[in-house]
Amino acid sequence: MVILDGGLATHLETLGADLRDELWSAKLLLENPSVIRQAHLDYFAAGAEVAITASYQASIPAFLRRGLTAAEAEDLILLSVHLAAQARDAHGSGAVAASVGPYGAHLANGAEYTGDYDLDEDGLADWHRDRWHILADSEADLLACETIPSYLEARALKRLLAETPGMRAWVSFSCRDGEHISDGTPLRKAAALFTGDPQVMAVGVNCTAPRHMISLISRIEGKPAMVYPNSGETWDPENRRWLGLADPVEFGEAAVGWIAAGSAFVGGCCRTTPEHIRQIRSHLVGPGPV
Questions:
Q1: How many independent structural domains does the chain possess?
Q2: 110-166 pLDDT, tens per residue?
Q3: What are the binding positions for Zn(2+) in this chain (predicted)?
Q4: Whose CB among 177, 199, 236, 269 lies 3.0–4.6 Å from 207's, allowing a Cys bridge?
Q5: Is residue 289 part of a domain?
Q6: Binding residues for Zn(2+)
Q7: CATH classification at residue 150
């Protein structure tokens, strides 16, 4: 069992960051990198064993659009890994997973939850390629392909993985319900893409409501399963507020069920905090210093 971290952007906002920007948490690579390091440290202190970097939205095209050069964009992407590594070293243990966010995150129109794309498989591979190789050549321990909503995008990432034979990865999908990824493909079919791939250490689900986890775990075969759901809250766009209350203790209790159902990795995504991770560790390992 491995405990992942929780919502990076959520905790950055708690630490005072304003993320109302198309770069989301990646804008802090430009403006305030030290707060990213602090967020990673807080998650390690809460019991996380893996830090997922702030590169989810840190694409070359996004930084070019901001007026940076390609070399400056590459430096910022590498900085996201370095900050997580610094936090890991300060904590004394852990791993760094370099986040490979989906093309939909770059579109900034919610497509990471629909898979409604304007690129085919070749186009998706081309779009991801530069950042992929930057991260694969970094000091990261592995690549975290996360919130993937599209079967075609998963196929494109599988092609890129073959271009970097020395790098391991996990692949985690966003899902619309307890059976399908966001574009409607059955999760069982999407997960099967990676069954025989020795570079893929786990296949899973993230940024999906906790209530779907046990059903989704049952559809992952041939690889260790991983789940790091969001808090289960829903956004009220009319009143611009979150509805519901995600109790960290209940989240920790639910994680016991996810492990029992067969998941080997557990953590949190959007709207989860270091306290959610602390509760996961408390329920699965027991209280005490980490």
A1: 1
A2: 899 999 999 999 999 999 999 999 999 999 999 999 999 999 999 999 999 999 999
A3: 207, 269-270
A4: 269
A5: no
A6: 207, 269-270
A7: 3.20.20.330
